[in-house]
Amino acid sequence: MTSGPGVVYEVSLAVEQDIVGEFDAWHADHIEEMLAIPGFLKARTFTLENDGQGRAQRVTHYHIESEADLERYLDGPAVAMRQAGINRFGDRFSASRRILHAMHGADAMPAEHCLNCKAILAGQYCANCGQRARSRLISLWELVSDAFGDLFELDSRLWRTLIPLFARPGLLTRDYLEGRRARFMPPFRTYLVLSIVFFLVAFFDPKENLQILFEPEEVSESVPADHDTADAPEESAENVGSQVLKDLDDAGVVIGEEQREKLKKANKGGFSISIDDKDGSASCSFDDHEQTELPQWLAKRLTKERLLQVCERVQANSGRDFTRKLLDNVPAALFILLPLMALVLKILYPLSKRYYVEHLLFVLHFHAFFFLVLTLQILFSRIGAVASIPEAITILTVVSVSLYIPVYLYKAMRHVYAQGHIMTSSKYLILVMAYAVGFALVMFIATLIAAFSM
After folding, report:
1. How far is CA 239 from its chain centroid?
2. What is the model's pTM?
3. What is the pLDDT of residues 270-313, one digit of tens each?
4. Which end of the chain, N or C, is more open, meaning fewer C-beta atoms within 10 Å of its C-beta?
């Protein structure tokens, strides 16, 4: 006769919060049925209110007399016992199972305090933070499952969030405000994940970022016969006005002396960029640079020397470095747009009794949807090019989905703020104009920062 149980059969259950009461009542009866099976000696259940994904967790350890008793259970009544729970609750809960061999002697005693939060332990799991009493090595499969489980599980919070985010305007915001949150991914995490995915899909070019995997392209050194670079005159911004006058005279157009003088003075002075056709290079000049109309604090920063330096940096490498710097600033610019649009909504709905953060939640979900739509459009266009889908179909699909974006915003406003068509339409137009102005403003600032930070 053994001095203790030969094996511990661990069953971990993750349960949706809205069925916890009903599930616990069923689970208590289920444990009694399990203990009636020959070889099952006792059971102990550990309770966690949150498994990290918004679900309640129940972990039960069944102490079994021997491995042979466990094998008889697994080969016999196990399937029927599991099916009973599925028939009752469907996919509202998930289960995982492990076999733990019981330990004897001093090694079987758990640590007195939790290694994570230092709370006093009273069992296999810490009642304060939920960490296991004993540290253990995890398998490679468990590590991969933790990393990509939400991606490949059809019932995970990721997919339960993306589907209504795309197809049900305003539903996620309304449910979150009304307290139905556990089944969906948190709003800010949703925005962050979809924005990262969008920028990866939109700006990741395998041939540019992974050049080592591709053969170099041959560069043709031939020059077109009709392009004589040796005789090409240097055309600058200074002679544009004279060229226009010559063209008008050749065409027989008569203009007054006042207009003629304006054209002669056109593009002379101030800031200009001249282009040399011989090598395609550009040069910056600041003739008669004036700062009298600028505020003093701005004039001190926009000196002629500094503007010339910025101009040369921007036009270097055909503007590639400037473009790359600007693209780096776009995510931050769009992030700054979030609180601005939330403030506009706060002003548009003064009687809604909603806090500012509730309007920010609406904007977060809409921007997450926007990134999702753009990502799908880009992927569809690229797949269409690879799969030889007719270009007309690709363009029609992309345009149709683009038209869905303003419709989505209007329907989301109706769903969340619950106002009539007339009030919603007027506020919708104001919000759209605010988006246009706000987007232009943040992109202008992003452009300035990119130019002056190179």
Report:
1. 49
2. 0.55
3. 445 444 444 545 556 655 555 556 667 766 666 777 777 777 77
4. N
pLDDT the model gives residue 439? 92
The stretch 110-138 carries a mean pLDDT of 65
% the chain with pLDDT above 90: 24
pLDDT tens per residue, range 324-354? 787 788 888 889 999 999 999 999 999 888 8
| CA–CA gap between residue 137 and residue 132 (Å, rounded) | 12
Q: How far apart are CA 240 and CA 246, in angstroms?
A: 10
Q: What is the rounded CA–CA span in Å between residue 118 and residue 143?
A: 25
Q: Is the dihedral of CA 175, 178, 184, 186 positive or negative?
A: positive
Q: What is the largest CA-CA distance in the chain?
A: 119
Burial call 43-68: b when 16+ CB within 10 Å, e when fewer = bebbebeebeebbbbbbbbbbbbeee
Q: Which of 403, 408, 395, 326 is nearest to 367 (CA)?
A: 408
CA distances from 89 to 19, 77, 84, 94, 347 (A): 9, 19, 9, 10, 45
* CATH 3.30.70.100 corresponds to the domain 7-102: yes
List the beta bridge partners of residue 10.
61, 98
Beta bridge partners of 14: 57, 94
Q: Which two tokens stand for residue 63?
A: 């102490």
pLDDT of residue 387: 87
Domain boundaries, the chain: 7-102, 146-211+301-454, 237-300
Which pair of structure tokens corresponds to residue 53?
């994904």
